[in-house]
Amino acid sequence: MNYRHGYHAGNFADLAKHAALLAWLRMLRAEGAAVRVVDTHAGAGFYDLSNPDFARSKEAEAGIKYLLGKDVPDSLKPLAQYVRAKNQGAGFRDHVGVYPGSPVLALDHGTQEDAYIGCELRSDDFMLLQHRISPRGEAVQSDGYAKAVALSADGDSRKQLYLIDPPFELPGDYAAIVTTLRDVLAAQPDAGALVWLPLKDLETFDGFLRHFERELPDGDVLVTELRLRSLWNPMKMNGCCLVAVNAPEGFEAVVTAIGRDVVAVFGEESGLARTWRL
Ligand SMILES: C[S@@+](CC[C@H](N)C(=O)[O-])C[C@H]1O[C@@H](n2cnc3c(N)ncnc32)[C@H](O)[C@@H]1O
Known about the structure:
By secondary structure, this protein is of the alpha/beta class. The chain has 10 helices and 10 strands.
């Protein structure tokens, strides 16, 4: 595996995904439910943006650092405030030195009754993840798809939220997301899931959605497309997409605003944001 999330941490796609995850967690918190988050592709937990190897990509510069230097739109304010507070806590007063990934974000918004399980296959990032989240959360070095399916059958009575955020280095990730969700939802029909996908060309995206509809024809599924530009160049990441299954009430309005605001801040004139039901 070549993919390392450190190169991409804090980019526009992370901001969209993490703003949506944060909103979802806060909605569950407001309901007062105990929650178990299963993060099938966890990464290293948080990211040191001063790491010279990672900083060379300049993705955080064009993402979180750019955002925090602006008048932050309302839908992104909770994430911006959280990242600012995290940096102040880490001693960074005048710049963004760290960016929290999904494991740390989920743990920072949980309670004693909640649980977090993060899967990471790479040994280097797994070691970092384990060091950074344990004992608050559990890090496992195993395939996130298989682990999610196994966990869905273990009878845990908390509200379940699956975050599925693969690197898409392998074309098989698209099919694995669908079959994993099919099996998880067969065991836990009320489980929530938030999936992140890159948007490069329309055929890959449509193929994924067709497969999704075949396997999960009756799902409660929201699709948010964030196209930063028209999709004429399939070699480029032209945007991203968030697919939400069994999202809490009120999430649709929030994710719609997140899509609109991320495209307004980071997109080109041909950009487009929309949320629709599958
Ligand atoms: C996009 S990153 C995750 C970012 C993280 N969810 C966040 O938001 O901070 C994807 C991670 O999945 C890991 N990975 C790839 N295939 C995996 C698999 N089958 N099971 C678990 N982890 C995997 C990669 O090493 C990489 O660290």
